[in-house]
UniProtKB/TrEMBL annotation:
Taxonomic lineage from the root: Bacteria, Pseudomonadati, Bacteroidota, Flavobacteriia, Flavobacteriales
Name of the protein this chain belongs to: DUF2971 domain-containing protein
Superkingdom assignment: Bacteria
Organism: Flavobacterium psychrotolerans
Length: 233
């Protein structure tokens, strides 16, 4: 269930366009099971995920001098927070195609912030929050810790190109043992507005995606990315 927390920043306009770039196997998994995979926060490539900047860490160390459990909580909390990452952009991103899809066999889901909010199924057991990532200097800038989600909504400035917005859930109270992540129920027709096929893909691949989507019972607008379209001169 999507929960609106006024302390967590997100774009004001629900029509803000967001993207998810993924390979075909993950796309089929999404449609087949109608569930969105959320990765365990400490399994991301960035080792700083869910950690604090130096100024914040120094303050937490002082606070935990007489209460070591306070620091231990933040160290173990990362295992219980799961995240689905999306990219904010009015247009396609060449960089995102390069980073998140293999060779020429990938797809991009186009959606909006409002669609993400509505797609999170109300009956779900886990509370879901949506927040925009802030990019800061981890050696100089402070990350507030009055909200347990804040460490997961800050990243180093070197990741600014990601322009990330996240669906986040804390499953600590559910006493789960999470391996790489977990899947949550979503309204697939709501979360997907349009599908773009990799700009370097061939026609057979586009036809395959169209047929797969049809056989799985969906009717999305599908088109090939025009980032590699013929030049006009």
């Amino acid at each position: 269930m999507y929960i609106n927390d006024n302390n967590i920043n997100q774009p004001e306009d629900p029509n803000t366009i967001v993207w998810k770039y993924l390979d075909l196997s993950k796309f089929v998994d999404l449609l087949l099971y109608r569930k969105l995979f959320m990765s365990r926060s400490d399994k991301f490539e960035d080792q700083y995920e869910g950690t604090f900047s130096e100024p914040t860490y120094e303050e937490i160390k002082k606070l935990s001098t007489n209460n070591p459990d306070f620091l231990d909580y933040y160290k173990t909390h990362r295992k219980n927070v799961v995240i689905s990452s999306w990219h904010i952009n009015e247009y396609e991103s060449f960089a995102m195609w390069q980073i998140f899809t293999q060779k020429s066999e990938g797809l991009a889901i186009q959606s909006t912030l409002g669609r993400l909010q509505k797609a999170l199924v109300p009956e779900i057991h886990y509370e879901q929050y949506i927040g925009e990532v802030n990019y800061i200097d981890y050696k100089k800038e402070y990350i507030p810790f009055d909200n347990t989600f804040f460490p997961f909504l800050f990243k180093r400035k070197s990741f600014q190109y990601e322009r990330e917005i996240r669906i986040i859930s804390d499953v600590t109270s559910h006493n789960l043992t999470i391996d790489n992540g977990l899947k949550i129920d979503v309204d697939i027709n709501q979360i997907i507005e349009k599908i773009y096929i990799h700009p370097k893909s061939e026609n057979w691949y586009k036809n395959l995606v169209i047929e797969l989507v049809k056989r799985l019972g969906f009717d999305f607008e599908i088109e090939k990315s025009d980032l590699e379209s013929d030049i006009l001169i």
